[in-house]
Amino acid sequence: MAVVRKGSLDSEVTVDYATADVTATDGTDYTSTTGTLTFAVGESTKTVNVPILNEDDEEPIETFTFTLDNPTGGGPDPEDAAVLGTEIVSTISIAANDASLVRFQDVVYTMFEGQIVANVVVERIRNIDNWGFVHFNWEDGTAKAGDDYSIVGRKAIFLPGQAQTLIPMQLISDAVVEGVENFKLHLSSPSGGLDQSVVGGQTTDIDLSD
């Protein structure tokens, strides 16, 4: 944020500043900032940095305010004292990140041993015009890789215009009655047009039934 001092620059002037939530939330959408600006003799412009936070959620444009208050300093005569102008409150808009959000379509999948077609769906939203990919890996639970399931590959690839892609797997059937077993899939490190900072729904649970 740029704060501009107008009029005489012959003396030091200070002014307090603070941000406040409107529809944006401190700590989620941006980092609240307060302080005092000191304009030295001859200095007309100061800049305040307000950190904007990158989050995973789909949201409309959100706003917060930046307000100036309590000016001090200026010339020795009352008419030369520092005062606030008419533009002391500024409203800042935070637009949604236009990178693609990549996530599992479902939080939990229920599948069956020996199922011929077993796919987990990975989807992206917002911008789907570019190609891209996201890495995936698996984590054993009560189900064990090689004994209960098998997955080939490490990347889920999106072609331009493609909103969904699949992670295929083979579910291994055996003669042992084991009840429901499970393992997890994780997403990580998107690339090629996908933004790593907005990966969402990074983990899904796979339940295997006899």
Summarize the structure.
With 210 residues, the chain is mainly β. The protein contains no helices and 16 strands. 0% of the residues lie in helices and 50% in strands.
CATH-defined superfamily of the largest domain: CalX-beta domain
Question: Which fold does the CATH topology of the largest domain refer to?
Answer: Immunoglobulin-like
Report the portion of residues in β strands: over 45%
User: What's the domain count?
Assistant: 2
Descriptive account of the structure:
With 210 residues, the protein is mainly beta. It has strands spanning 2-4, 13-21, 34-39, 45-47, 62-73, 89-94, 100-104, 108-112, 118-125, 132-140, 149-151, 155-158, 164-171, 181-191, 194-199, 203-209. The strands form four sheets. It has a five-stranded mixed sheet, with no helix packed on it. A five-stranded mixed sheet has the order 8-16-14-10-12, with no helix packed on it. Strands 3-2-5-6 form a four-stranded antiparallel sheet, with no helix packed on it. It is rod-shaped. The model has no long low-confidence stretch (mean pLDDT 84).
Topology (SSEs and partners):
Blueprint: E1 2-4, E2 13-21, E3 34-39, E4 45-47, E5 62-73, E6 89-94, E7 100-104, E8 108-112, E9 118-125, E10 132-140, E11 149-151, E12 155-158, E13 164-171, E14 181-191, E15 194-199, E16 203-209
Parallel strand pairs: 7-15, 8-16
Antiparallel strand pairs: 1-4, 2-3, 2-5, 5-6, 7-9, 9-13, 10-12, 10-14, 11-13, 14-16
